[in-house]
Design a protein that fits this description.
- This protein is α+β, with helices and mostly antiparallel strands.
- The protein folds into two domains: 176 residues, q2cbj1_9rhob like domain (Jelly Rolls); 41 residues, DNA Excision Repair, Uvrb, Chain A (Irregular).
- Strands 1, 2, 4, 5, 6, 10, 14 and 17 form an eight-stranded antiparallel beta sheet that branches. A five-stranded antiparallel beta sheet has the order 3-7-15-12-13.
- β8 and β9 form a beta hairpin.
- α5 runs antiparallel to α6.
- The longest helix has 20 residues.
- The protein is globular and about 55 Å long.
- Bound molecules: nickel (II) ion (NI).
- Nickel (II) ion binds next to loops.
């Protein structure tokens, strides 16, 4: 399931990230790539753990923790400290699947990458190309969102970033270990939770709301692995 989370960051938060990204030091993006993906990856990154990456990362994770849509879609157990990339003209990232396990640098913690996330930090009119293309069972999806918007997609899916043909594409990317490992189970819980919310708003005192809430929690309990 692909989920678009709009307006994760406010205008001033986007401006602050852009300011930081303008003076940050950039390195070859292959620093965090696996063996296969290193051959397909041609972009720039801000090194992990730098004060710049940390400041922006905390801002993003804080915003996500306040987003009901993100929480209900991802059911996050652990969020990888956000990384930041830049694709200048002719830069691209060919088809790959993200690494299954990520060590959180400087900690003994490891994270299973159930979900991948891209938070767009450039406005779409600032660059041409640079779409995130995700393949799933329903076909190929090209994603290019307004600055401050986020796309969540299964880390197990084949994906690429189209070559940038004008301007620069700035984004944050990171992974989430979900409390519910299987994408299909998480998708059902998200759909059930969304319907439940609508039902509750339409008929708040209906006794079936309690029963349906019970069904949601019991499925969650059955499918969680944390
Ligand atoms: Ni990737």
């Amino acid at each position: 399931m692909l989920v678009h989370v709009p307006d994760v960051l406010t205008g001033p938060q986007i401006s602050r990230c852009r300011e930081v990204m303008a003076y940050a030091k950039w390195i070859d993006g292959r620093a965090t790539a696996g063996h296969q993906s290193a051959r397909a990856k041609h972009n720039l990154q801000i090194p992990e753990g730098t004060p710049e990456a940390r400041e922006m990362g905390e801002l993003i994770v804080g915003a996500l923790e306040r987003s009901p849509l993100f929480i209900s879609a991802a059911l996050p157990h652990r969020i990888f400290p956000p990384l930041f990339n830049r694709y200048d003209e002719s830069m691209t990232f060919g088809f790959h699947v993200d690494n299954a396990i990520r060590q959180i640098t400087g900690t003994p913690l490891r994270l299973r990458t159930d979900l991948s996330a891209t938070l767009f930090l450039s406005r779409p009119e600032e660059y041409d190309g640079g779409e995130l293309v995700v393949e799933d069972t329903y076909g190929s999806h090209a994603v290019k969102l307004p600055a401050g918007h986020l796309i969540l997609y299964p880390a197990a899916s084949l994906h690429r970033v189209n070559p940038v043909t004008r301007g620069a594409r700035l984004a944050s990317f990171f992974w989430i270990q979900s409390m519910v490992r299987a994408d299909a189970d998480r998708t059902l819980l998200f759909e059930l939770g969304t319907v439940l919310q609508q039902f509750e708003q339409a008929v708040p005192d209906h006794p079936a709301v309690i029963d349906l809430t019970g069904v949601y929690y019991n499925l969650f309990r059955r499918w969680t692995d944390t």
